[in-house]
Amino acid sequence: MELPRRIGAVGDPPQPGHPVEQGTDPGLRLGGGGLGGARGRRRWVHAAAVHVVPARAGDGPAPPARPGVVDQLHRRPRRRRPGAAARRRARARLRGGAGGALRAAPPHRSLLVHEAGVAALLTWGERHRRDLPWRRSRDPWAVLVSELMLQQTQVPRVVARYEGFLARFPTPTGCAAAAAGDVVRAWAGLGYNRRAVNLHRAACAMVEQHEGRVPDELDALLTLPGVGPYTARAVLVFAFERDLGLVDTNAGRFVARAGAGRRLDAREAQAVADSLVPSGRAWEWGQAVFDLGALVCTRRDPACGRCPVADHCAWQSAGRPDPDPVTGSAGIAGPQSTFAGSDRQGRGRLVDALRRGPVASARAADVAGWPGDPGRAQRVVEQLVADGLARVEGDELSLP
Q1: Fold (CATH) for 343-398
Q2: Of these residues, 147, 163, 211, 382, which one is catalytic?
């Protein structure tokens, strides 16, 4: 079966009198004598003025466009601000909700990342998919736990502790029923212990507000403690298989380099990521993009010679110009500050000690590794209490 050819590239305009196939970019950039062309100028034609006809195998010649449509496209359109309903529909499409059959591809999307590139990456992903324990389940709670653990923690450390944690707290209800201190103890070795407190608080919120279940709507997920835009979308993709794009450190490199070929702000990066997701394949696509970012499209010295989408990469096509698009692009974490001697190191030492039992307040500076600096230790203890990681009882510190 011959698939309908995408149109909208400069120099390949639709011919007057022919309808536009469904799947065409809603903004058609045309030049010369094409739709909207005038004296060689290029401008965007809004899809609302185009008659959209679904293409099916076995169809005969395309039906004619509605009378007058093509002629109307040659007129200079009046600029109109989208109404509230249109804006709501656009937001719904970005959130994976219902909304027209066409998904808006942003103007900055690289034309080099198209169907061939998507197919190449999906094929590569199937062959090189890493066998990670959280990929064997679609359970929303298991997915949420894995996503929180993977924030700023290396994969091998999460692999070593993920299944044991789930065995201890297999459901939101089980986690909410435990003391916060028990969750912090089970979090040992993962670092950034405030995530354990947030996970416990999120479990309590699910019990109180969602009947002990992980919600399946973006807005509801975003109300949970510790759940931001990326984590909420990751749960929707990997647990509920919604067609949404993801932008984290690994995926962000792919989006900036292959998808756009330039530095992106947060709004642009999310729009590009959403536009690249193949319909009905979000789970496979997300895993493939993550693996590509971890194994091939690395921050330093990306292995472009081994990349399955090198022929479709905007940055590669441009000759890999400096600066690298990942520099300063949204969603891509920069180098971490020095850990040795930092407050983070002292906090970690104190929490590790509290996992073993109460600590005398007078010994906090020694335990944190700052003998002779009780003022610094006191400040860190106050932060731990504010974060829900410690409580003061008399002259002792303990886990909550």
Answers
A1: Arc Repressor Mutant, subunit A (1.10.10)
A2: 147
